[in-house]
Amino acid sequence: MFWKFDLHTTSHIDTLLEKEDVTLTEVMDEDDVLQECKAQNHKLVDFLLRPQCMEDLVTFITQEPSTDVEEKVKYKYPNISCELLTSDVSQINDRLGEDEKLLMKLYGFLQNEPPLNPLLASFFSKVLSILIGRKPEQIVDFLRKQEDFVDLMIKHIGTSAIMDLLLRMLTCIEPQQLRQDVLNWLNEEKVIQRLVDMVQSSQDEDRHSNASQSLCEIIRLSRDQMFQVQGCSEPDPLLATLEKQETVEQLLSNIFDKEKNESAIVSVIQILLTLFETRRPAFEGHMECAPGMSHPSFSVNHSILEAVRPRLKDFHQLLLEPPKKNVMKTTWGVLDPPVGNTRLNVVRLVASLLQSNTQSINTELINLNTLGVILDMYFKYIWNNFLHIQVEICTAMILAMPPAPTDIQPDTEQEHARESILIKHLFQKCQFIQRIIDAWSSNEKEQAEGGRRRGYMGHLTRIANSIVHNCDKGPNGPQIQQLISNLSAEDREKWEAFISGQLADTNKRNTVDLVNTHHIHSSSDDEVDFKDSGFHQDSSLQQAFSDYQMQQMTSNFIEQFGFNDEEFADQDDVVDIPFDRISDINFSLNTNESANIALFEARCNEKIQQFEDAGSDEEDIWDQKDVTFAPEAQRRPSSGSTDSEESTDSEEEDVKRDPFEASNPSTDDRMEVDTGLSKISIHHSKHRTIPNDCVEVLPGTSCHFSYHPQDCDGWLSPSEASSSSTSPKDCGTPKAEEETTCSEQRSITETVINGSMKETVSLTVDAKTETAVFKRFANHIHTKMTLQTCAK
Question: Where are stretches of biased composition, namely Acidic residues (predicted)?
Fold first, then answer.
C-alpha cells in the first residue's frame, strides 16, 4: 500500500496557489488539477470560485479559441474548463447555478449562428446538463424566462449535442411535478410540430436525422415513463401530440407532397416504425401466433393507422419507382437499380402494418398487390439478406395470425369472414407455392451446372417449413390445406414431392448432432472383457446392489472430506471410538420371506445347541439374572451388586496391594464391544500390560468389569498372550482338565480396525462349566476375563 511506504507527495498546486499573482491558466497547466478539484482541495476550490475565474471558465467553453493558437493545444483550456465545471463539486454547482450573469454568458452560446462548433457545443451541453440535474428548479426557471430558447434549440437541432440537451430536459429532471411542467411548457411551445417541420426535403440530412431521432426518443421515453409511473394521472402531452392523426398526416405530407428525398422519406418511416412499436417480442419469423396479439396494451393507436392508410398507395409506388440511385457494381454482377434504403424501409413498414392485423390495412395492401411486388423483389435480389428477412417476417405473420377482426360481421357471412384474406391472396394471386418450387428447382439446376447456391435459400427453407407447420398446427391450418388442395394436380404433386424429398433432406442436413454417442468405444483393451458379461436384468440381487450403491454410506456426510480429531489421539487412550462409517444399509430383496425366517431360526438353533443340556435340570444360562460377585480365587470378597460405584470401592480397597494400578481412577476409559452374545462395557487402566482378572457375571447383561492384579505366578506377557487360547493362565486350572474341556467350548472371534489400531476380540464360552473367557489383543494389551454365572 502506498501510504505504508510514505509515497504520497504534496501537490504542487498548494505551493502554486500561495503565490499572489497566480493565474487561472497557470493552475490549469498543472497535471493534477482535475484530481485535486474532484478531491475538493480547499485552496483550489476557493481559487476557482473567484468571480473572475468562474467567468473565465465559462468563456473558455463558449467562445471560439484564437486562430493563432497551435491546433494540438487549441482546445486544451476549453476541455479542462468543462471538466472543472462538471466535476460535480457542490460549491461550483451552486455558484454557477445561482449566478444569473454566468448563466446568461453560458446561454449566449446558443445565440451564435449555425452551424455551431461541435466540440464547444458538446462542452456547453455537458455543463448545462449537469446543472439541470443538480439545480433543476433554478435552471428551468431561467430557461423559461428566455423567450427564444425553444426557437434556438430547433434552429441548432442539426448539432447532435443540442439534440442531446433537449432529451436531457426530458430525462434528467427528477421531481415528477417539475417534469410534467416542463412537458407542458415544451408542448405549448409546439416543439413537436417544429421538429416535424424539420423533416422535409428543404432541410439538410443532419436536420432530418436529428429531428427524426429526437421524435423517436420522445416516443420511447414517454411510453417507458407511462409504464414505470402507473399512478400518474396526467398523460404525456408530447406523446399525445405525436400520436394525433394530423401530426402523422403532416409527416407524410412532408415527403409525398413535395420533392422526393430519400433522407426525409427514411426519417419519416423511422418515426412511423417507432409509433408502431409494441411491447411484445419481435416476430422474427416465428411459426406460432405471437402471444397477446389482440391485447389492448399491445395495439397500435387507431388514429395512426387511419393517417397511414390513404398513403399506402404512395408507399407502394415507392417500391415500383424509388428515388433515383446510381448503378451499383458488385462482385457477382450489376444492380440496376439497387434495392436502396428507401425500398428496404418501406418493406419494414409493410411488415409492421401487417403486425397490426387491421382489416382496412390488409384490404388496401391486397388491392395494391403490395405483397406480390415484395415477393418479386425477394426473388430478384438474391443476395440482399436485409430484404429476405423482412419478407420472411411478412409471410410468417400472414400464415400464423388469426383472421383480422371486422367491424360488421353478418350472420350469413360469419363463417366466410373467419378466413384470412391475406392467406388467400398469397396462395392464389401471388402463387406462393409455385414460386417456391420454381425457385428451388432453379437453384438446384444452377448448382448442378457448377454455380453458387443462391443467397435466399436459407430463408426460403424457413418459409417452406412455416407453410408446413401452419398447415398442420396453425390457426389457419384448414384454410391452408384447402388452398393447397385447390392447386392443379401437377402443382400439388410437385409440392408433396418437394416437402417429402428436397425439403426433408435439407432439414435433415440442417439438424446437426453436437454430440454423437452411438458408436463411442473405449480405446482400453481392459474393458473389452466386461462388455459381454452382463447380469440378469430381472435379478433381485442386482436391484439390491443398485439400491445399496444409492444408500448413504455414512451417518454424517461431511466426515468423508476430513479426519476426526480422535484419529490423531493416542490409540491406547481412545478405545471407545464409535464405528459409524457404515450407519445404515437397507436391502430390499424380493425373495421368499417365510423360507428366510425358517432358515434363520434353524441356524440359530444350531449355533446355540451346544450351550444347552436337554437332560439337565439346571437353569438356562441365558435367563436374565442379577449380577453377583463371588470370591475371586477363594480370596476376594464379592460385592453382590451391579452398582458401578460399589465395584469402584472394591477396586480402591485393592489399590494398596497393586503397585501398578493407576493413581487417578478418573482416567479410566470405556469401550463397548458387541460380540453377538452380549454387550460388555469394560473399564480398564492405561497400563501397557494388564494382569488377568476373574469376575462373576450374569450372561446376557451389560456389565462393568474392574480389572485387578491377581496373586498369580506372574504377569501375562505379550508372547504368552498370543499363545493363550481358552483359559486364564495360572489361575488354578490344570492343563489336562483344560484339554478335556476344549471339545465343549465355543469361541467367537472378531477383528476390528479402528484408524491405525487393530484389535482382536474373542469370547470363549464353556457350556459345561458355565464359564466364559474374554480376550482382547491390541498394541501389546492382553485383557482376559473369566465370566461365571451363578444361580440365584
Answer: 643-653
Question: Which element (helix H / strand E) includes 470?
Answer: helix 457-473
SS3 552: coil
Mean residue pLDDT across the chain: 75
Which are the contacts of 440, defined by CB distance < 8 A and separation ≥ 6? 457, 460, 498, 502
The answer to whether residues 170 and 183 touch, using CB atoms and an 8 Å cutoff, is yes
DSSP reduced 3-state for 416: helix
**722-746: b or e for each residue (b if 16 or more CB lie within 10 Å)?**
eebebbbbebebeeeeeeebeeebe
Q: How much is the average pLDDT of 101-124?
A: 94
Per the listing, cell 430478384 goes with 380
Quote the CA–CA distance of 656 and 659 in Å, as a whole number. 7
Q: How far apart are the C-alpha atoms of 617 and 624, rounded to whole Å?
A: 17
Work out whether strand 771-778 and strand 781-788 pair parallel, antiparallel, or are unpaired.
antiparallel
The answer, yes or no, to whether residue 241 has pLDDT greater than 80, is yes
244-263 residues labelled b (16+ CB within 10 A) or e (exposed): beebbbbbbebbbeeebbbb
Residue type, 776: R
Q: Cβ of 160: how many Cβ atoms within 10 Å?
A: 16
Taking Cα atoms as reference points, which of 468, 377, 464, 482 lies closest to residue 420? 482
CA gyration radius, the chain: 50
**473, 481 Cβ separation under 8 angstroms:** no
Helix (H, G, I), strand (E, B) or coil at 680: strand
What does the block give as the cell for 277? 412499436
Residue 664's pLDDT is what? 44
Q: Name the β-bridge partners of 636.
A: 632
- Output the CA–CA distances (angstroms, integers) from residue 116 to 64, 149, 158, 694, in the order listed: 10, 15, 9, 114
- Whether 467 and 400 have beta carbons less than 8 Å apart is answered as no
pLDDT at 626: 52
Q: Which three cell numbers stand for residue 596?
A: 428366510
Number of Cβ within 10 Å of residue 681's Cβ equals: 14
- Angstrom distance (rounded) from CA 689 to CA 254: 113
Residue 351: closest CA among 282, 417, 261: 282
Asked if 354 and 308 count as a contact pair (C-beta separation under 8 A), the reply is no
**According to the 3-state scheme, what is the secondary structure of 309-328?**
HHHHHHHHHHHHCCCCCCCE
Q: Which residue has the higher pLDDT, 52 or 3?
A: 52
> Are 751 and 758 a contacting pair, CB within 8 Å?
yes
The CA-CA-CA angle for residues 175, 176, 180, to 5°, reads: 120
pLDDT in tens, 113-150: 999 999 999 999 999 999 999 999 999 999 999 999 99
d(CA 469, CA 463): 10
Q: What DSSP string runs through 73-137?
A: GTTHHHHHHHHHHTS--HHHHHHHHH-HHHHHHHHGGGGSPSSPPHHHHHHHHHHHHHHHHHSHH
Alpha helices in 159-283 (DSSP H): 160-171, 176-188, 191-198, 205-228, 237-242, 245-256, 262-275
